[in-house]
Amino acid sequence: MARTNGITKTTGPELLLRRGLRLEYATLGWNVIGLGVLAAAALGAGSPALAGFGLDSLIEIFASLVVVWQLKGIHKDREARAMRLIGVAFAVLAAYLAIQLAFVVAAGLRPATSGLGIAWTALTFVVMLALALGKIRTGHALDNPVLRAEGKVTLVDAYLAGAVLAGLLLNSLFGWWWADPLAGAVIIYYAVSEARHSFKHDADANIA
């Protein structure tokens, strides 16, 4: 905080820090609500994709909490540890998607149509995309790799919402049950790449 003529002014970095925290709190709120919505939709439609997307929301909640913890006490030790935790979140997401993909294909499950699932994943795609871009831009402006990395976690969440939405729509319109897990394979590759990047950043920081 800077003072000019007795008036306290918020500096640029402090404004960016507050923006980053607001973005994380918005992400937390959306995903907490989403857990209940997705649980209801998954049970109603018998959809493993919707159930899995709910688990992905848990990973996003974890990643957001890590970033809030780091932003509230920024220093090198927290940055390295936070990057490691973000990398773990990406790795868990990739592992979960791979298991889900194998299970859905092997079982040949045919989930029912879910209007609630379609509406929520469509909204989530738009909201997560906006939050991700905001986090990545704010992270670049702050020169904060942790916020940038978590922004990419949110971006994966948006892509996953889009993949689940596409799968639900294609299943509803054409009966193409396999469309959802196929789209998930692309996200697995992205999540693995980002996990490697996060772990590499952590290793480089420890060497330095």
From TrEMBL:
Cation efflux protein transmembrane domain location: 30-201
Entry's localization field: Cytoplasmic vesicle, Secretory vesicle, Synaptic vesicle membrane; Early endosome membrane
Keyword Membrane included in the entry's annotation: yes
Pfam annotation, one family: Cation_efflux
Membrane-traversing stretches: 25-43, 49-71, 83-109, 115-133, 153-170
Keyword Protein biosynthesis in annotation: no
Chief place where the protein resides: membrane
GO molecular function: monoatomic cation transmembrane transporter activity
Membrane topology: Multi-pass membrane protein
InterPro entries tied to this protein: Cation_efflux_TM, Cation_efflux_TMD_sf, Tmem163
Alphabetical keyword list: Cytoplasmic vesicle, Endosome, Membrane, Synapse, Transmembrane, Transmembrane helix, Zinc
Domain of life: Bacteria
Any one GO CC term of the record: membrane
PANTHER family linked: TRANSMEMBRANE PROTEIN 163 (PTHR31937)
Family: Belongs to the TMEM163 family.
Name of the protein this chain belongs to: Cation efflux family protein
